[in-house]
Design a protein that fits this description.
about 290 residues; Rossmann fold; six-stranded antiparallel β-sheet; EC 2.7.1.23
Length: about 290
């Protein structure tokens, strides 16, 4: 049975005041419309500072997923990624209004967002689960940190080649010199992995793409493994290597560091309009003929 929405939360591009200022009118119209539908409306506290209206509940990003049945994210793919990671434990449905550039994850446009939301609130939508990656970095057998990613985990050097060793499920795959390595979910294969020559994977697939960045040996090509694989990357030789998660937060790596990447326990619930088609989206965003 499809979820029924009684409470809707709104999150804008909460880390960017200038972006929130530019979307002030759209955010205000969105709140007014949802309240006119007799829905409980909750707004992320940073976003709320730019709304010219009253009568809604305030909540932190960490808590907002537990107060709503649906979270509407206004921004670009970066905003959607950060909100999805923050709300992953709540299992709340997310839908995006595109105020960014390409917008692979944000389906609605501001010029028709209220009409599309009306259909969605009446049950005319598609629900889709997207997998996450769980990563842990260890040094000298002590875990330094762990994080999740919806798009990709990227290991790279800014200025020189690094040497990496890759293992899948305890089996040695390769030792390579390259600018870095991308480990991408199907969602992330239209991001950095695509620019590096990796495959596009349909989001219904359960798989992880391993994509080298400018490998020194040109025969080293991307490889896709099952989603339940455990991937281990060992930093063999690197002077300035870093790891990032969805491109949002970097950490320095050292020689001998071990990075473990596996499928995350949670999944992200994305909501699309009833007319959404993944191939139409690719064709429009990537300018295919």
């Amino acid at each position: 049975m499809l979820p029924y929405f009684r409470s809707v939360a709104i999150v804008g591009k909460y880390m960017d005041d200038s972006a929130l200022q530019n979307m002030r009118d759209d955010l205000t119209h969105l709140v007014q419309y949802l309240q006119s539908q007799e829905l409980h409306v909750c707004v992320e506290e940073q976003t709320a500072r730019f709304i010219r209206h009253e009568g809604f509940e305030l909540a932190s990003l960490e808590n907002i997923g537990h107060k709503a049945d649906l979270v509407v994210v206004m921004g670009g793919d970066g905003t959607m990624l950060s909100v999805a990671r923050a709300l992953r434990d709540s299992n709340v449905c997310l839908i995006g209004i595109n105020r960014g550039r390409l917008g692979f994850l944000t389906d609605l446009q501001t010029d028709n967002m209220l009409g599309e939301l009306e259909k969605i609130l009446q049950g005319e939508y598609q629900l889709e689960s997207r997998m996450l990656l769980q990563s842990a970095v260890s040094r000298a057998q002590s875990q330094l940190w762990q994080s999740v990613a919806m798009n990709d985990v990227v290991i790279k050097s800014a200025f020189r080649l690094i040497e990496l060793e890759v293992h899948v499920d305890g089996k040695f795959v390769s030792r390579q010199r390259a600018d870095g390595l991308i480990l991408a979910t199907p969602t992330g294969t239209t991001a950095y992995g695509l620019s590096a020559g990796g495959p596009i994977m349909h989001p219904d697939l359960h798989a992880i793409s391993i994509v080298p960045i400018s490998p020194h040996t040109l025969s080293y090509r991307p490889i896709t493994v099952p989603a339940d694989s455990v991937i281990e990357v060992i930093i063999v030789n690197a002077a300035d290597a870093q790891i990032s998660f969805d491109g949002q937060g970097q950490h320095a790596l050292s020689e001998g560091d071990h990075i473990r990447i596996a499928r995350g326990e949670q999944e992200i619930q994305l909501l699309h309009p009833k007319t959404y088609c993944y191939f139409d989206m690719l064709r429009n965003k990537l300018n295919w003929g």
